[in-house]
Amino acid sequence: MNIEIPKKWYNIQADLDTQLPPPRHPATGEPLTPDDLAALFPKELIMQEVSTERYIPIPDEINEVYSIWRPSPLRRARRLEEHLKTPAKIYYKYEGVSPPGSHKPNTAVAQAYFNLKEGVEKITTETGAGQWGSGLSFACNRFGIDCKVFMVRISYDQKPYRKSLMQIWGSQVYPSPSDQTQSGRKILSEDPDSPGSLGIAISEAVEMAATHDDTKYSLGSVLNHVLMHQTVIGQEAQEQLAPEEAYPDIVIGCCGGGSNFAGISFPFVKDKIKGKEVRVIAVEPLACPTLTKGLYTYDFGDTAQLAPIVKMYTLGHTFIPPKIHAGGLRYHGVAPLVSLLHNQGLIEAEAYYQTEVFEAADTFAKVEGLVPAPEAAHAIRSVINHAVECKKTGEEKTILFNFSGHGYFDLSAYDAFYSGQLLDYEYPEALVKESLRHLPVIQ
Amino acid sequence: MNIEIPKKWYNIQADLDTQLPPPRHPATGEPLTPDDLAALFPKELIMQEVSTERYIPIPDEINEVYSIWRPSPLRRARRLEEHLKTPAKIYYKYEGVSPPGSHKPNTAVAQAYFNLKEGVEKITTETGAGQWGSGLSFACNRFGIDCKVFMVRISYDQKPYRKSLMQIWGSQVYPSPSDQTQSGRKILSEDPDSPGSLGIAISEAVEMAATHDDTKYSLGSVLNHVLMHQTVIGQEAQEQLAPEEAYPDIVIGCCGGGSNFAGISFPFVKDKIKGKEVRVIAVEPLACPTLTKGLYTYDFGDTAQLAPIVKMYTLGHTFIPPKIHAGGLRYHGVAPLVSLLHNQGLIEAEAYYQTEVFEAADTFAKVEGLVPAPEAAHAIRSVINHAVECKKTGEEKTILFNFSGHGYFDLSAYDAFYSGQLLDYEYPEALVKESLRHLPVIQ
User: Fold this and answer.
1) pLDDT tens track for B301-323
2) Which residues, at least 6 apart from B366, have a Cβ–Cβ distance to it below 8 Å?
């Protein structure tokens, strides 16, 4: 299907019936002003963050870079349908065709561009599995911006090749917690063997940006503008499905911070708000079940309480998730926009064990041929369950999911799965309860 | 450019003015009959091997699998042109979009299909860097064939993740030399630390197929039918260039056994035979310079003298190339068809050091965004040199090259390059001279 790259991003804030609770200052708890964010982000992105315009035009310079891999393929998983003997039609949007191998550059390219436009020369960020770090490295290299990446220690060790990829694109990569920042040094002094977490890595990247005038910070998920940049995925999917006269009954995406989930689903949630019937499902690891087990309340975005306080589903900012291989899903919170939609019942959430997720990944790789990243495999687990359900009920549902990234950098996780060394983690209820004692008090 | 997948393979044997010297039996030295090959290959592939039909139709079942990633993208490397400030136009065909990440499945899918059609249940093969092994594993998994892969030891150790990929697709992978075959055990007894070579791995795979009735053998390069299956690359490139009214002045491909080189170039050599002006360049490692330094003579295709004797450029079947990272280019010979064209002056050859190849790979990754495999980087080294030459002469040449595979499984080689640990190897003249003493005597 020969479609065009979208000319605009979709901003779901234009279609919300309730306003998004305002983000608050980590020190004072007062609502943030755009000025408060100016230390971390370029003005254009701050405007996008608070905008209620339904569509924001995509600059040609960004579309030119998108054109390296966009529009990404939309494919029907016919072999999987046959394998499952399901009457369901399964479609997937394949974001693994981007040079970094995931959906992340959809926003990385936009963020690097708007930083460059305002003369920013250095950007810091954090990364979990390394998908975001390599996405931003690719984008910064493209626009000639210096990039420093704080990579969650456990992933830094488990996925050395994502680190190599970032270095090929010219970034400096530090294992987090690192000795580069006060926040990092503090954690290391308490636990020299800390596996790290996205929360800790965010603290380090934010601290470095906040303490250097020539440096801004870039976040790979959670924020409104980040989710909005990802909507090229869902917009393309709608255009690609049109000729097939197909509209999904169920839209599924894995959910860590929420960006790939928002990217595939928000354009469909837009239809749902207008009365269209469609189920939208976010899939999480049972080891970090933010939407399924967390509280919807104000919490810090990071461990060191440097990032804004936002209203979201959270397991508490001090919660450090178990060392699952889906590093991109090891975040204690979830995007405020995704949280609000979940709180309003517009979306659903499911959580799965790591091994059942890899069983789904193994099935998909053998049947369809493509090897999913552990994050994307969470979506596939859910897809297979719903397709099998259709087999029982005989319903010919159309299921669309976001194949957010390939697993070429996660093969050590597959090795662990095949050799029976993959551990399952029960919902860490006690840890979460303890963590939730440390929520900020908002008047 | 929305083009169709080719409906037929191009067989260059139809356009040769001299017949290809016949392959000979490794034991008797007598010309091989199709029956001699029946122990190793299914009849349909043997027919293709000796066919002089110009085109051979591609079965729908094969095109259906091709459609997962074909037609592969043809892109213009505008950023590289600007970076080099060259008037040359640089186009590349990107084969890294296939699930195994290289051009190899173009023939793997065809070979697995024709084996299945004749009821073959088991296939053995060898692999260097793992590109071919993962290509055949993908194809065998697709058609439900049991696949055993002998992987050159040095690559087995350097590229563990390509091995993981083969295992995901259900193959058994053995480091070669292995204890699974007589040939392997013989080498190990002489040199327990042997890094292996394609020649040795071929011996093991051929031996296992020849000694098991239910098992056939599959080769990833060298043979006529393998090269023919790859011509979908060049045929697509010609169709994709047509709307741009572009025809290459130079066509470039890296060359180990010769299959990706033949795939991109043979449809253009066809035009050249008819009088069209086009330079066709095969690029090799200086550590294994078969076309540039070898003899054009009859030699064994493998170390243990089990594979047919063919007339080709060779460094001698006992020559074991230095441990360069471009494992797919570590073969003592080159395809008889490629050899004949070179001997007739229809194609040229160039050889480069490993580090200058990685310098080109680094440039391409940073400027164009895609990370090439070390094999493909050999072509890029040549492309850059010719583009820089155009800058000096001011000639606006059109250069087309085959980006045969991505480097996501070769990042350890990039790490070695950046850390200055990458070794260069001079042309191993003494080793080659010694090896060439052991050529077979053909009456």
Assistant:
1) 988 898 899 999 999 999 988 88
2) A141, A168, A169, A170
- Chain A residues whose beta carbon lies within 8 Å of the beta carbon of residue B97: 97
Residues with Cβ < 8 Å from B64, sequence gap 6 or more? none
Which parts of B211-297 fold into alpha helices (H)? 224-229, 232-241, 259-273, 290-293
**pLDDT for residue A1 is more than 60:** no
Q: Which of A75, A168, A415 faces B371 most closely, judged by CB atoms?
A: A168
Contact check, Cβ <8 Å, A409/B414: no
Q: Is A122 left (phi over 0), alpha (psi -120 to 50) or beta?
A: beta
Mutate which: A359, A408, A412, A421, vs B, most B CBs within 10 A: A408
- The CA distance from A302 to A308, in Å, is 8
Region at A126 (left for phi over 0; alpha for psi -120 to 50; beta for the rest): beta
Residue A116: CB partners within 8 Å, gap ≥ 6?
A143, A144, A145
How far off is chain B from A198, nearest CA to CA, in Å?
24
Structure tokens, B289: 């310079």
* Amino acid B1: pLDDT: 52
Does A231 contact chain B (CB < 8 Å)? no
Tell me the per-residue pLDDT of A53-85, one tens digit each, with 9 for 90 and over. 999 999 999 999 999 999 999 999 999 999 999
pTM over 0.90: yes
For A380, the enclosing helix (H) or strand (E) is: helix A374-393
- Which segments of A292-396 are extended strands (E)? 295-300, 309-314, 348-352
Strands (E) in B322-362, as ranges, are 348-352
* pLDDT-based confidence at residue A52 (cuts at 50, 70, 90): very high
* Nearest CA distance, A260 vs chain B (angstrom): 21
The residues facing B369 across adjacent strands are none
Candidates A99, A141, A415; nearest CB to B164: A415
> Which pLDDT does position B443 carry in this prediction?
67
Per-residue pLDDT, A443 = 67
CA nearest neighbour of A335 among A226, A437, A431: A226
Whether B409 and chain A come into contact, CB under 8 Å, resolves to yes
Chain B residues in contact with A365 (beta carbon < 8 A): 168-169
Question: What does DSSP assign to residue B189?
Answer: H
Q: Considering only residues 90 to 109 of chain A, which have any Cβ-Cβ distance to chain B shorter than 8 Å?
A: 97, 99, 101
Separation of alpha carbons B326 and B321, rounded Å: 11
Residue B390 DSSP label = H
Contact present, A86 and A387 (Cβ < 8 Å): yes
Tell me the ipTM for this assembly. Answer: 0.89
How is residue A385 written in tokens? 């369950």
Residues of A in contact with B142 (CB under 8 A): 369
Is there a contact between A412 and B142 if contact means CB atoms under 8 Å apart? Answer: no
CA A189 – CA A206 distance, rounded (Å): 20
A68 closest CB neighbour out of B165, B169, B369: B369
